[in-house]
# Entry
Amino acid sequence: MNPRETAALLRLLAALDGRLRRAMTDPQQAARTIDEWNEATVHIPAVTADGTWDVMHAVRRFYEQQRGDHTARYFAYEPHHLLAAWADHRGSRMERHTDPVPAADPDNEAAYRAELAATRTAVATGQSAPAPLRQAIDPAGQRQIEATVSRLAASSYLPEKAAQELAAFRPRRAERETALRKGEPDPLGQVCTWCGAGKGEPCRGGFRPRGKGQAVRIKPHPCRIDAAQHRPE
# Structure
C-alpha cells in the first residue's frame, strides 16, 4: 500500500475503534502512525487485480468477531493483524496457481527461471490472478473434441505411409495381414504338427521336427499352411 491508501485504512480503523480514534486526533501522532503503518504494510496490496482481496474487508472481518474470535475486544487492530490476514490469502492464491509454460526458450535456463519467478511474484503480490490447472471447456470445444475422437476411431491407428514402410521391412507379416483382410485362411490359426507351435505362435526351426529351441521361422511350415487351406468349415 502507498501512504494514501494507508491513511484511508487508518481513517476506517479510527471510525471502528475508539482507541485508534484518540491516537489519530493529534496531527503529529497521526503522521507518525501513517508512516509506521506504511513501512510495515508496503508489500500488501490494498486490492488485488482479480478482486479476491480488499484490505478494508480484512479489517471489517477482524471487528466482526467471526467464529467466536473476541480479539478485537481486548486489542486494537495493528499491522501484524493485517500481515497475518494477507499471509493466509497469499497462501490460498499460490495453492490455486499452476505455473504456465514460460515463453522463454527452455535451453536458456536463466531466462526460463526468471519468467517463472516473475509469474509467481505477480500472483503472490496480487498483481495477477492465479492460473488454474484447467480451463472450462465451452460447448463448442466439447463438440470439437467429440468430432476428433470420432474421426480417430474411424481411421486406422497406423498411418498409411508408416504401414507401407513396415510392409517393406516385414514382407511376410504384410502378406499374412493382407490375406486375413481378404478372408483367406490363417496358417497361424492352426497347431503346427511339425514343430509343435501353438495357435498364434510362429513356427521354429528348419526341417527337423521338435524345434522348440530353434530360431523363429518367417514362414510357417508347409504342413501348417496345408492344414489351414484344407481345414473344413
The mean pLDDT is 80. The first helix runs from residue 3 to 16. Residues 22 and 131 are 44 Å apart (CA to CA). Residues 160-229 form one domain.
